[in-house]
Amino acid sequence: MKIEGRALKYGDNINTDEIIPGVYLNITDGKELAKHCMEPIDKDFLRKVKQRNILVAGKNFGCGSSREHAPIALKGAGVSFIIAASFARIFFRNALNIGLPIVECREAAQEIRDNDRLIIDWVEGKIQNLAKKESYSVAPFPPFLQELIRQGGLEKYIKNRMRQK
Prior knowledge:
Elements: E1 2-9, H1 16-19, H2 30-34, H3 45-51, E2 54-57, H4 69-77, E3 81-84, H5 89-97, E4 102-104, H6 106-111, E5 117-121, E6 126-129, E7 134-137, H7 143-150, H8 154-164
Parallel strand pairs: 1-2, 2-3, 3-4
Antiparallel strand pairs: 1-5, 5-6, 6-7
Domain Aconitase A/isopropylmalate dehydratase small subunit swivel: 38-100
Pfam families: Aconitase_C
InterPro entries: Aconitase/3IPM_dehydase_swvl, AconitaseA/IPMdHydase_ssu_swvl, IPMI_Swivel, LeuD, LeuD_type2/HacB/DmdB
């Protein structure tokens, strides 16, 4: 599966309190959470993400508390893929659990610039930077994760599996 878009670039150590402040944790709807996504560090995030749907970050993205609200807010805002040098492990798992594809690629995270046009083939394990005419290899998503993401996350995946039985 391929995702195409433009990069929206952030730095290192973006924590879950910056992705979605704790005051909004009583909200569970992704579209409502999106209104406050990245509020502490980028007041224009919601406007920017409409034009640049692939978030690119440095190391330790999603560090901090283990709230599932952070990837829900990003997905609700329109982020369709995240590339980072590294992720906090709990954020990594939470993102996949809600069907938000993410991948670690230090080289891509360092070299991609804000607004670069990208094509990501997460089945084949390729990131193409059309602006720089460069490509990066990453581990392809295993079939189970591909299906989990296609179905919109772990909860929907399990519900669909239960219906099949």
